[in-house]
Structures are given as C-alpha cells and as structure tokens.
Amino acid sequence: MVARIMRTVFGVEPYPWQQHCLNVGLEVLPDGTFAYDELHVLAPRRSGKTWLKTGLVARTCGGDRTSLAVATAQNGDKAVTLWRQVADQIARSPLGPQVKEKISNTHEELRWTKTDSRFLPFAPKEDAIHSEEPDLVIVDELWWFDLAAKTVLEDAWVPVFSVRPGQAWLLSAAGTSRSGWLKDAREKGREAVAADPGRGVAHFEWAIPEQVGGVKASLLEDDELLDLVWNHHPRRDHGLRKDFLEKELTTSRPRFLRAYGGIDSDDSASETVIDELQWGRARTREQIPETALVGLGVGVDQDGVDASITAAWRRPDGVALTEQIAHRPGTRWVAPAVEQLVAAHHPVAVAINHVGPGRNVADELTTHGVELLKLGMGDWGSACIRFKSGVEEQPISVSHDGHPDLEDSMRHAGLRETKTGLTMWAKTSEVTVTVLESTTAAVWAADHPGDVEPVKPVFRIF
Fold it and tell me: Which pTM value belongs to this model?
C-alpha cells in the first residue's frame, strides 16, 4: 500500500530497494498484526530514505482510524527538520486538503482533519512521548545514539507495542565507534536474518565488503573503490550519478567510506586518554540553565590550527555541566567572540592555558577588555588531571554534552608529562585536542571565578 501511495499520491516510483523493504517490512500475520515491529534500514546517503519515511507516515495516518506517527533524530532541531521534510511533502501533495499543519514554538504537528490522526516530531529525551501511544515510530540517523539513549527512547514505545501493535523504523547511514545503538541493531538484525523467524525484527542493510581480495576497502585505489561503492549502492541506475560519487571521494576518503560505502569510521584509539565507559556515562543531554553564572574556557591548538570556546557550570549537587559554543580554524576570531559572550552574560570568568599560542590569544583578549584566568604550567596541569578525574570517578563530578568535536578531541588526545612532573593534554595525531582543552579550561573557570586578573590599562606615551 505504501508503494501505491508513493506512486499514485506523490508521483514517485519506489526504487527497487524501497519496494523490497516495504514488501517485507509491512507483511501482515493472519491475525491482522504486523509480522515485524522493529525494522532496520541501514542504507548509504542519497539512497532515498526521505520518501520512504513520507510513504510510511501517509499510510499510517491516512487510514480510517485515528493514528499517531512520531519521528525523532539527533536532537530536537533535527527532529523538527525531519518532520518538516515529510510534512511539507504531504501538505504539497493531493493529500493537502485533508491535513492541517500547525507550527509554533516547541510544538509542531500535521493533523488529518477527518480522523484526527497526527504526525509529530519529538526530541530524543526521556518522557518526550510517554503520554502518547504511537502506531509508527521513526528514528532517523540511528548512528548518533548510544546504548543509553536506546534504553531511554525504547521505553517510550516498546510497552505501548505490547498492547497496541505498531512499528518502529530505525534508519541510518554508517556510524562511528560511538554509535552504540546502531552497532546493537546491526548485530541483532543480522542474527534475525540468519535465524529467519519471519517475525519480530526485519533487517535491511546495504554496504560494501570490508575487504576485496584480501585488501581492506579503505586501501583500494580510488578507481577501484569508486567502482566498488557504485556497484553496491542501492540507487545505482536510479538517478545517482557516478561523477557525484567521484567528487565526494576526492573530498574525503574516510567520509566517503562511511557515507556511501556503509563502513563505520574507526575514530577510536585502542586506549583512550579517559576511560571509555566512564566517558560514556558522563555524557548528558542536560543543558546549562540560561540564568546560570557560567565559566568560559578558551582552547588554542599548539600550532595555531584552530581554537575553541566552551561554557561550564557546576550544579548545586557538585556536578559540572559543559556545553560547546564555538570551534573554528585559526585564532583571530576568538577575542571578538569572547568579548561578545562576556558582554551578554556578565559576570563570567574566562580561563585560558597561558602557554604557547595561548599567550598571544590571551593578549588579544586583554586588549578587548576581557578579564582572564591565565593558567600557567602548574594550574594547567592541575586542570587537566582534575577534569580527567572528574569524569572517571564514581559518581562523576564532571559531565559533558557529547559534542562531536569534543568526542574527537578526547579520542585523539594523550597525556604529556613535563620535566617537572606535570601532566597535561597533548596531541597524538593530526586531529587537534583544542575542544578538550577549552572544556577543561571552562570547568576550571566555573570553579575559580574569584581568581580573575583585572585588566590593566594600556600604557600610552603622550
């Protein structure tokens, strides 16, 4: 039925891979319930997953009874973007007269006026849809979520499906070492395919083989890798251009393998500088309150490649929260950006590692009238160890927002011991650890607001 809706309502002919997913995934048992309540669609970028989602929503909500479809992605904003893509396609189609879009601050819905069926976005957080009873759940970009998020989100619909049969469609491209839910779904799905129970979990996956003739796919010559991806992509001969893939390959081979080859990127070291399990436990979606007095941390790469600004606030219970603010190439942008933040959130303490290139940025900040916590070698070594200990101790005293740039910094960071016995962050690869440094400095600033050095007037000769 979804394929017919796509064809007759939206004027879109389903791709063969979409038709296969729908033929299998929407199979109905003799009692009228779906054979599969959990469906995994792991497909490369540019496969056409958006139209699949649109067809599923139209089928679920366009029937004769009141139904509910919900969708989420990496965060609330991404969930709304996903919802808007699907809702707009439905509203612009011949179904438009049957639906009514409602868009307001923090509340969006597409409602079918005849049956009162609804399609809603929801933020991926606890209790987001606990008062609802969805018939269809769509989780997009599954690679973003860890196992903790899986537990939280599944608790919103798995109990509902036990008494009101529905389906959860989990869609994603390949992931990273942090993609706990994706890895779990892939393993669970492959086991289901091997067992072939005919119900429960339906698993669809498109990816290139990790090795060809004993050679890792990532080590193939460009033309061989391009042909391999082209031959395995589900939209080959259905609108996808090979010259587009060729351009993507020349831009970034690791990104190409992940986005179009379906190969998870290996961005984790064999041993991370902070315990991997504790780092995951310290990840939180809790945000710093808007009225909180925060500390700002500035990080500057030792080679001046990039710079970063992070905010931190310590809760009354003693746990520090951190949020990434900005991370850009170069350093000249930092002083004006920090000046604006300080003016908007005064009073605020600003900390920076006052060693190497950090000294130059500190001078620029002082010129802009920003009072600073200038961390010398001793304080900086203490800040690094305190941050590491705060994440690793139980219970934790430092949490983080899981920003991708911070995750990359942590996984490519090492500890360098100086001749005087101090230990501090250091790069172990070409990936900078700047965001880890700014986050460390931010926690120090949040804990030492009274140590700020007043700005000295600029000396002038008249």
Answer: 0.61
